[in-house]
Amino acid sequence: MSIRFGYADTELGQVHYRESGAGPSVVLLHESPLSGRIYEATLPYLGKRVRAIAPDTPGYGASEPPPEAIDIEGYAERLLLFLDAMQLDQVALVGNHTGGSIGIELAVRYPRRVSALVVTGSPVFDEEEARSWLAGHIESFPFAGDGSHLAWLWKRYQRIWGEDSPTTLLHQATTEFLRTAERYEWGYIAAFNYRAAERLPLIGCPVLFLTSAGDMLADKQDASIAITPDARGELFPSPWGQMPARHPEEFSNSVALFLEDVGYL
């Protein structure tokens, strides 16, 4: 199953996307500071069952950035414009980390447009946790004439994702980071300041919390299920996060089975 690439024109800028397949639309939202590229291994599997679309969040990948940092509500507004530009009246959303926050906000604000939601790594933080996460994830990134910033960035992802992470995955993370280095923290700030716990109880569609055991937010799974009205959970037995990239077939199967069970497929 091939992947197609394109741009959607919205009143707030162009949004780049990847897509595969045909049928009911499933929109996949990525974590920060990556891009829809993290779903490239997943798209062909999902594309056998649905029209799977992975946009680059505005300001990341090849999508046009906002003029200044925005919050999760601002990202949700821009992604709604993307849905309009793509003529997607109803969709199922899949969101990983920051993408999960955006998906939650879209489902709450625009319930008619979102038929089902899958959240990978539920972004539920209280104020103290948010301060701690912000302190741990936002580091200065000065460009160095000797290229030492490149080694620093590679080691950063080895530290966060594991030293034995596949080289191809580390390469993807570092190159996507470099595309947006001067504003890489925008998505982090938006996600850590978003109060998902206040929004999850307001979701009206079915929700699957699909997380791997090694995901850094796996400990948020049970609490997220408990406060979300029509929710279920699946914990995948992997010691690492990045489930769509590391286990694309299993991830796609879990998403498709959930969407079948709730009547979207």
Structural description of this entry:
- The radius of gyration is 17 Å and the shape is globular.
- It has an eight-stranded mixed beta sheet with strand order 1-2-4-3-5-6-7-8, with helices on both faces.
- The chain has a single domain, classed as Rossmann fold.
- The mean pLDDT is 95.
- By secondary structure, the chain is α/β, with parallel strands linked by helices.
- The longest helix has 14 residues.
- The chain is built from eleven helices and eight strands.
Radius of gyration: 17 Å
Number of helices: 11
Number of domains: 1
Q: How much strand?
A: 15-25%
Shape: globular
Quick one: biggest sheet? 8 strands, mixed
Instruction: Quickly give the structural class.
Output: alpha/beta
State the order of secondary-structure elements, H for helix, E for strand: EEEHEHEHEHHHHHEHEHH
CATH class: Alpha Beta
Distance between the termini: 19 Å
CATH-assigned homologous superfamily: Alpha/Beta hydrolase fold, catalytic domain
Overall average residue pLDDT? 95
CATH architecture group name: 3-Layer(aba) Sandwich
Q: How are strands sequenced across the largest beta sheet?
A: 1-2-4-3-5-6-7-8
- CATH fold-level name: Rossmann fold
